[in-house]
Amino acid sequence: MFRKIPFVEAELQQIGTRPSMMGLGTSPVYNTPVTPRANFDAMYDDRHPYWMPSVRETIALRPALYTNTLGRGSREDITDVFGVRWRYEPVAGGSIAVSGNPLLLDANDWREKIKLPDIDAWDWAACARENPVDPRFPCFMSFANGFWFERLISFMDFMPAAMALIDDDQIEAVRELFDAMTDLGCRLVDKFCEYFPMVDILEVHDDWGAQKAPFFSEEVARDLFVPFMKRLTDRIHAWGRHAQLHSCGHNYDRVSCYIDGGFDMWAPQPMNDIESLYDNYGDKIILCVFPKETDLAFRSEEDQRACARAFVDRYTQPGKPVLLGMEAFRRATPAFDDEVYRYSREVYLRQA
Hints:
Layout: E1 14-19, E2 26-30, H1 36-46, E3 59-61, H2 64-67, E4 78-79, E5 85-89, E6 94-97, H3 110-113, H4 124-130, E7 139-143, H5 149-156, H6 158-164, H7 171-195, E8 199-205, H8 218-238, E9 242-246, H9 255-260, E10 265-266, H10 274-281, E11 286-289, H11 301-314, E12 322-324, H12 327-331, H13 334-351
Parallel strand pairs: 3-7, 7-8, 8-9, 9-10, 10-11, 11-12
Antiparallel strand pairs: 1-2, 4-5, 5-6
Helix pairs in contact: 5-6, 7-8, 11-13
């Protein structure tokens, strides 16, 4: 049962600091009536948070055990467990696989070329000791590079990977590879849920689109991707955790695949029609949203707060909660964020 807790000014008192979500610097901790973690639970489970949640309130689990073996490294060049070389690009703030010498020239060779890691031999207990989780905040573990298209790109380079999805001579091999990688993903879910009981959200990376359109058809998506997505998200849900998708690009036309794949949340980029996504799918998948205004920092405080109230009114339809996403970092201001918290507390209290 959702509890009615009236807003008081003391909620906005800073009572401490904590490491920021990305591990760079610190973030303030406020005197909220429930912890940010409890507010996320209310968003997911009740579809009715106490205030509009923000990705700023989360903490990220980034253990080297994953990032330096199956991920892309952490602001450094690495060679992963498969032998793929990753180069960190400071301008982009991320890593890319070094192209030109792919592990696979043909997907049919994957069993000879790709050796899956024995994750049971990894020291998970030591990893858990080295990466404590603060239970006050929602914690997510991100499977960077994922298990499907992004992983295939790292093995083959982009164009051969895209061609393999529609090459009759390679499709079955791609399916077999995705099947094996999904099994690996399920075993990783088991390990992280067992050793990190405070991890709430398991995020999977799989970029599906460019600036103007998806990389592949819905038919390909439903044939080669959705069944494996559903198997992985079912495993996540069986542990009582939430499944989040990181999928960049113009993927509006693939959101139904994400929903059928069992994901609880997706963070669309600005090239997608966010308002239309919310109107048509906000009751089926939680979306990361952000203000449409890109010039808030140059407006008066009064105008910033008016924009915040309009934003809250737009994205607090009953049963359709949202999360303030990463793009809000670049567009919002302290006054905007303050007003979003105040006003969303008021709106959700009225709806309780």
